[in-house]
Amino acid sequence: MKKTYTIEVDCAVCAQKCEDAIKKVEGVTDCQINFMTQKMTLEAEDPDAILKNVVKAAKKAERDFELIS
């Protein structure tokens, strides 16, 4: 299942770091972060169930990462 979230990330390099970290989270099939639109598309069996771990991984890669919705 794919789900799109609004995020806040400071730069394209930061977005790539977060994307790479999120892809390593257990249960994540794929992740795409678009810095220009500030959107993250997360593909997983149940995205909402692993969202806390996704945010934790992204913040570890880039502490300014914010999940808006």
Point out poorly predicted stretches.
none
CATH topology: the name is: Alpha-Beta Plaits
Rg (CA only): 10 Å
Strand content: 25-35%
Tally of helical runs: 2
Distance N to C terminus: 17 Å
Strand order of the largest sheet: 2-3-1-4
> What is the top-level CATH class?
Alpha Beta
Count of distinct strands: 4
The profile of the biggest β sheet is:
4 strands, antiparallel
Give the overall shape.
Answer: globular
Order of helices and strands: EHEEHE
Named CATH architecture:
2-Layer Sandwich
| Helix-strand category | alpha+beta
The helix content, as a percent range, equals 25-40%
Q: How many domains, as an integer?
A: 1
The overall average pLDDT, rounded, is 96
What tags apply to this protein structure?
69 residues, alpha+beta, Alpha-Beta Plaits, 4-stranded antiparallel β-sheet, 2 helices, globular
Descriptive report:
- The protein is α+β, with helices and mostly antiparallel strands.
- It has one domain (2-67): Alpha-Beta Plaits.
- Helices cover 39% and strands 32% of the residues.
- The protein contains two helices and four strands.
- It has helices at residues 12-23, 47-61; strands at 2-8, 28-34, 39-44, 66-67.
- Strands 2-3-1-4 form a four-stranded antiparallel beta sheet.
- α1 crosses α2.
- The longest helix has 15 residues, at 47-61.
- The protein is globular and about 30 Å long.
- The protein starts with a strand and ends with a strand.
